[in-house]
Amino acid sequence: MPGARAWSIAASHAASGLKFFNVYGPNEYHKGSMRSVLVQLHAQARSTGVLRLFKSHQAGYPDGGQLRDFVYVRDCAQAIQWLLDHPKVSGLFNLGSGTARSFLDVAHALMATMPRRKLSIEFFDMPETLKASYQSKTEAAMQRLRAAGYTQAFTSLEDGVKDYVKNYLEKPDPYL
Whole-model pTM? Predict the structure, then answer.
């Protein structure tokens, strides 16, 4: 009876839900305007040499200083595999690096991986339609996943950008 078998498998595994933060990494090219800021900046670097970032419209955040919790897709895959390997763990978990970094940090990390290109940063006004709902900072609280037993370190923004750019985005075939 297929239904009974499915029930017994489901009953032996706990359920976990994940809230992903700003994931970047290989094979996101199909996402169009929803691609990570890194892949969008890389495309700008290659086509114009100018990395365009939003001006800030909120006090306390300089232009390009808006913060996001950027997490490398490999770290997401490792955390998911860990959850699959630990079927008794259940709950709702954030999945980010646990550290908010600025869009300027992403731009500078990208520029460091492309030293032979003359790159500059330009700030432009945020569209009025975004201002009211724009979050100037997002950061994953990682305590619940850590308390569940996940101990793997997350890739630094600089190391993730370097790997993604050198091993994928700068290759003739950027796919795995």
Answer: 0.89
